[in-house]
């Protein structure tokens, strides 16, 4: 499922967009903000809490 990006030439936007099943255009353009979804559990996803 998808490709693991190069560590030397990382893609723009979210580091995981090349292999995420929920990818949308924003993922390819912008780095997602870090959000705390539960106490001491942080995620970096544009759709955290929605999926």
TrEMBL record:
InterPro entries (alphabetical): Oligopep_ABC_C, P-loop_NTPase
Pfam families: oligo_HPY
Coiled coil: none
Ranges where the Oligopeptide/dipeptide ABC transporter C-terminal domain occurs: 2-27
Keyword annotations of the record: ATP-binding, Nucleotide-binding, Transport
UniProt entry tagged with the keyword ATP-binding: yes
Name of the featured protein: Oligopeptide/dipeptide ABC transporter C-terminal domain-containing protein
Native source organism of the sequence: Fusibacter bizertensis
Taxonomic lineage from the root: Bacteria, Bacillati, Bacillota, Clostridia, Eubacteriales
């Amino acid at each position: 499922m998808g490709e693991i990006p190069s560590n030397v030439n990382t893609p723009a936007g979210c580091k995981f967009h090349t292999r995420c099943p929920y990818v949308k255009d924003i993922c390819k353009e912008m780095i997602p903000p870090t959000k705390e979804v539960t106490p001491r559990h942080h995620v970096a996803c544009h759709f955290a809490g929605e999926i």
